[in-house]
Amino acid sequence: MNLLKDIEIIGTYVASISLSAGSVLFFWHLCFPKYELIFDIGQYYVVWAFFVNLAMLIILISAIAVYKQRRPKLLKVIGQILFNIPVAILYFIILIALL
């Protein structure tokens, strides 16, 4: 059970850090739109965050298959990770509109 608890905690951290870092980059770009470096860093971050979140999702879905009794908690963590998708789309739409 210790491994499962670690997976839940890491999943929550991945979701929180991904959302926080993406938001910081987004607002940093809004404050300093002339700095192309911020935009470039943001592009690399989106690719990196996609693969990290995807890996975590695969781990969590696998954990649901093995630990059926913890399904509600694991689904909650999956929801936290999936919440990043509409936020990223919203940030993308705003950035495109500002170009």
Describe it for me?
- This protein is mostly helical and 99 residues long.
- It has one domain (2-98).
- It is built from four helices and no strands.
- The longest helix has 31 residues, at 36-66.
- The chain starts with a helix and ends with a helix.
Largest sheet properties: none
- How would you spell out the order of helices and strands? HHHH
Question: What separation lies between the terminal Cα atoms?
Answer: 49 Å
Radius of gyration: 16 Å
What count of helical segments does DSSP give? 4
How many strand units? 0
The stretches of 5 or more residues where confidence is low (pLDDT under 50) are none
Strand content: under 5%
- The portion of residues assigned to helices is over 70%
Overall spatial form? elongated
* Residue-averaged pLDDT: 94
Task: Give the class from helix and strand content and strand pairing.
Answer: mainly alpha
Total domain units? 1
Topology:
Elements: H1 2-31, H2 36-66, H3 71-82, H4 84-98
What labels would you give this structure?
99 residues, mainly alpha, 89% helix, transmembrane helix, transmembrane
